[in-house]
Amino acid sequence: MPNYPLYTIASAPEGSKSALEQLQRAFGVLPNIAAAIANSPKLINSLVAVFQQVHSRGLTEPENQIVLLTDAVANSCPYAVAFHTALALQAGISSKETDAIREGRTPSDQRFAALSTLARTLIEKRGHLSEQEFDSFIAAGFTKEQVLEVIAIVAASTITNYAGTIANPPLEDSFKQYAWRE
After folding, report:
1. What is the pLDDT of residue 56?
2. How far apart are CA 66 and CA 83, in angstroms?
3. Which residues form a coiled coil (predicted)?
4. In the prediction, which pLDDT does 53 show?
5. Are 72 and 157 in contact (CB under 8 A)?
6. 39-86: per-residue pLDDT in tens?
7. What is d(CA 153, CA 178) in angstroms, rounded to the nearest whole number?
8. In sequence order, what are the residues at sequence separation of 6 or more whose Cβ sits closer than 8 angstroms to the Cβ of residue 114?
């Protein structure tokens, strides 16, 4: 794989700096994945635009993290799996639930299970949900609008998962304990 430099805010291309500043404010640090994505101002700015929508009103942060972790596993992105495991645990999700997703199983919590199943199905079937799959998500207490919200989360995670797989940035020390292999 190609070697992508990890930019700081100061060293990043001019068109990437504002996006990196926003991500650093959001996470308290500049994640290495963002530092690598900054090689493309177009991609980092696209990520930040979708990121802002994903983390605005709608699904809760724990629910967002269930989708993001599921996507990282479904897309086989070790960096994103470690990153979203840490964020899921910070958001109050139990290690029992994160371990289930990391192992390709469904979480035991009914809402988390519905979110994880929908996210995985959207990725595996490239958006082609059956009526039964759609209805199962709704039956778990979600709305048809939230199906579309999950698509936005999948879009955001696709950016980081694909870029993370290609750029392969190193894990920060704080995420190494959550390192993942398929």
Report:
1. 74
2. 12
3. none
4. 79
5. yes
6. 999 999 999 998 887 777 789 999 999 999 999 999 999 999 999 999
7. 21
8. 136, 137, 140, 141, 142
Q: How many Å apart are CA 24 and CA 14, to the nearest integer?
A: 16
3-state class (DSSP) for residue 6: coil
Close Cβ partners of 135 (under 8 Å, ≥ 6 residues apart): none
Other CB atoms closer than 10 Å to residue 123's CB: what's the count? 18
Q: Is 40 exposed, middle or buried (0-12, 13-18, 19+ CB in 10 A)?
A: middle
Question: In which region does residue 126 sit, left (phi positive, over 0), alpha (psi from -120 to 50) or beta (all else)?
Answer: left
pLDDT tens, residue by residue, 139-177: 999 999 999 999 999 999 999 999 999 999 999 999 999
Residue with tokens 């794989």: 1
pTM of the model: 0.91
Give me the architecture of the 61-157+171-178 domain, per CATH.
Answer: Up-down Bundle (1.20)
User: Looking at residue 173, what DSSP letter applies?
Assistant: G
56: exposed, middle or buried (C-beta count within 10 Å: 0-12, 13-18, 19+)? Answer: exposed
Average per-residue pLDDT for the chain: 93
Handedness of CA 45, 25, 80, 179 (dihedral sign): positive
